[in-house]
Amino acid sequence: xxxxxxxxxxxxxxxxxxxxxxxxxxxxxxxxxxxxxxxxxxxxxxxxxxxxxxxxxxxxxxxxxxxxxxxxxxxxxxxxxxxxxxxxxxxxxxxxxxxxxxxxxxxxxxxxxxxxxxxxxxxxxxxxxx
Length: 130
What we know:
- The chain contains three helices and seven strands.
- By secondary structure, the chain is of the alpha+beta class.
- It has one domain (2-126): Nuclear Transport Factor 2, Chain: A.
- Strands 1, 2, 3, 4, 5, 6 and 7 form a seven-stranded mixed sheet that branches.
- The protein starts with a helix and ends with a strand.
């Protein structure tokens, strides 16, 4: 079933993000990829991958995953809670995330991702006690 394939790719993407695995990210991310950050900034594929120079995940938890497949496009919606470090600053993030996966030449690739702060939680705040 295609939705299971997408779910597995989603898990691989999360694990590659958590590990900062640039090679795996290049395999999964489409050349036309665009990310929209929680404050509206845009990153292309290489900028997304290169952000691992200064941005490091310590934890990345995904829940409430919903996958919808439409022929050669799949939409994934989920909730992510992360603990990360940017330069010397500890951060906590809580986002609703939307992803668009596209099938190109038989392979699924991540074409877009967008982050929106959860309405009932702070989108990003310095981590306390870390």
